[in-house]
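Can't paste images in this forum, so I'm doing it all in text. The chain is below; anyone willing to post the predicted structure tokens underneath?
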Amino acid sequence: MDAHAILHTAANTVALAPVAIPEPGPGQVLVETLYSCISPGTELRCLAGQQPDAAQWPYIPGYALTGRVIAAGPETTLATGTLVFCSGTMAASVARMWGGHVSHALQYERAVYPLPSNVDPLAAALAKLAAITYHGMRLSRPQPHEQVAVIGLGPIGQLAARLHQLSGARVVAADPLAERVPSPSKAA
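Text version of the structure:
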């Protein structure tokens, strides 16, 4: 099928273009994207050609997506209509750098996660960014009495500041963009 994807076609060049996605094979599902999540720092670094392990141009960026299963291949158990989270597409007519910014994604059923009915698919699209943040927090093991500095308050920095605050640590945060830094009265 023809899907549409955001493509990084060359350094600092973005396009919206059709990409061919094959029909689901054994153990695969086709997901219609509802939301994908932008990680500005990573995607701008990739777009500038500064990602060490970057795919060759053109490629589909985007960490992850949430969507609805619209077709399933043989040997699958997910019903059509199931809301899922996944890390982009595994097969397309162009390379992918995670591949989340695509209208339809083909993925192995074992690599998609059904969303519980009480989870908003828009919020679930942030799961990959939250996982990155949580991994960093687990590595640093903040203690409730400690002070934590968060430098950069993009999506991952915002999540890091909030998770560390929830852990009981005192958070000090900074960003070169003043509008990203909450005033003391709004920080609580």
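The CA atoms of residues 33 and 67 lie 4 Å apart. The mean pLDDT is 91.
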